[in-house]
């Protein structure tokens, strides 16, 4: 199947090298395999060719005058429309330092010069195949999101009608029903409202990948305090103690990051509900080029052996009788963080609370 995938498409490969004999060998090897080859002998020319037509793969010499391969790779990987292009470094030296630096900058592989024809061809074919598979998976996920959105949208309208009919029934006929009938009617109303809420969350989840992201500098301290106060006002009778360590500013979308904070804190408030005093600690640490944030609570916690289910859609570790919810909130959090090049994970222990961790890149 992989070979068929490569045969069915004409691939464009950009070769960036300033050594004529190396260019001749690479072009000969790749043309024999029916690849379309374009050649640039310096970084600036390569950039012009890339913007004229985005290549499927770049073979990039490390050592060139003016702009070396490392700098060109950095520019490509920092450009959103170009960063998915696989880059294979070409180097006359198999020194570990050059290889390490190339991988750190986002290169996918390397080939040592002078070329071994079969090795060069095998590496090119491998990374083109991986690129095809990634594109197919991305398209499949897009279709799945579209399907989920369509199904949820089409279900919502008749359910809203059903919910309204139940309301009319309650208003006009509730006094004509015996206790059993009243209980059944209220159960129908409760369940229809619950399904509508679940569909709303599914629609919200489906839109996560399509929402326009507008980045700006965000004050997380202010955002956490604002959301905490809103949630506390909804349950004024509870003893909720929140400790917020000074948090760094981050670069992100205000609407999505606020939704992230709301989902995280809503869970902390919900799962501490049975505690006489709820304690929520919000902290951050700095690691390399990112910040790691943590939101800890002293709630019911969870068994870590089920942690792999936490970020799945409609996955729950507690029954609806114990705690309300649709099982979509954490999946939404994960999608928001992916849009910001961040990560999320959780730790917990039964009856000893849980901690939600997430990362965000440092604001430049």
Q: Specify the helix fraction band.
A: 40-55%
**Alpha plus pi helix count:** 10
Specify the overall morphology: elongated
Q: How many domains comprise the coordinates?
A: 3
Instruction: Just name the CATH architecture of the largest domain.
Output: 2-Layer Sandwich
The poorly predicted ranges are 1-5
**CATH fold-level assignment of the largest domain:** Heat Shock Protein 90
In angstroms, what is the radius of gyration?
27 Å
Can you identify the CATH superfamily of the largest domain? Answer: Histidine kinase-like ATPase, C-terminal domain
Number of extended strands = 12
Main beta-sheet strand count, sense and barrel state: 5 strands, parallel
> What is the string of SSEs from the N terminus onward?
HEHEHEHEHEHHEHEEHEEHEE
Please identify the structural class as seen in this structure.
alpha/beta
Determine the mean pLDDT.
Answer: 82
Class of the largest domain in CATH?
Answer: Alpha Beta
Order of strands across the widest beta sheet?
A: 2-1-3-4-5
Distance between the termini: 43 Å
Strand content: 15-25%
């Amino acid at each position: 199947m992989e070979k068929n995938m490569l045969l069915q498409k004409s691939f464009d490969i950009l070769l960036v090298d300033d050594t004529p004999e190396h260019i001749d060998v690479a072009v000969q090897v790749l043309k024999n395999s029916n690849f379309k080859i374009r050649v640039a002998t310096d970084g600036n020319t390569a950039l012009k060719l890339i913007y004229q037509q985005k290549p499927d793969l770049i073979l990039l010499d490390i050592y060139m005058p003016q702009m070396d391969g490392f700098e060109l790779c950095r520019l490509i990987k920092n450009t959103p429309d170009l960063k998915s292009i696989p880059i294979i470094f070409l180097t006359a030296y198999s020194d570990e330092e050059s290889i390490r630096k190339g991988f750190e900058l986002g290169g996918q592989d390397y080939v040592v010069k002078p070329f071994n024809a079969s090795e060069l061809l095998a590496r090119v074919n491998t990374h083109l195949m991986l690129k095809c598979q990634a594109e197919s998976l991305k398209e499949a996920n897009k279709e799945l999101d579209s399907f989920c959105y369509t199904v949820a949208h089409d279900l919502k309208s008749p359910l809203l009608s059903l919910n309204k009919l139940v309301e009319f029934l309650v208003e006009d006929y509730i006094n004509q029903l015996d206790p059993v009938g009243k209980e059944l009617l209220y159960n129908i109303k409760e369940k229809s409202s619950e399904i509508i809420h679940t569909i709303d969350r599914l629609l919200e989840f489906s839109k996560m990948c399509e929402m326009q992201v507008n980045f700006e500098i965000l004050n997380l301290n202010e955002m956490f305090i604002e959301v905490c106060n809103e949630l506390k006002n909804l349950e004024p009778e509870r003893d909720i103690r929140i400790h917020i360590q000074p948090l760094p500013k981050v670069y992100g979308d205000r609407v999505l990051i606020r939704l992230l904070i709301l989902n995280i804190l809503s869970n902390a408030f919900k799962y501490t509900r049975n505690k006489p005093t709820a304690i929520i600690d919000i902290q951050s640490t700095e690691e390399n080029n990112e910040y790691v944030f943590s939101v800890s609570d002293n709630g019911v916690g969870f068994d870590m052996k089920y942690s792999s289910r936490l970020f799945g859609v409609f996955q729950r570790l507690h029954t609806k009788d114990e705690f309300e919810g649709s099982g979509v909130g954490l999946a939404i959090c994960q999608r928001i963080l992916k849009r910001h090049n961040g990560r999320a994970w959780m730790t917990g222990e039964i009856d000893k609370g849980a901690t939600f961790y997430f990362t965000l890149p440092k604001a430049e």
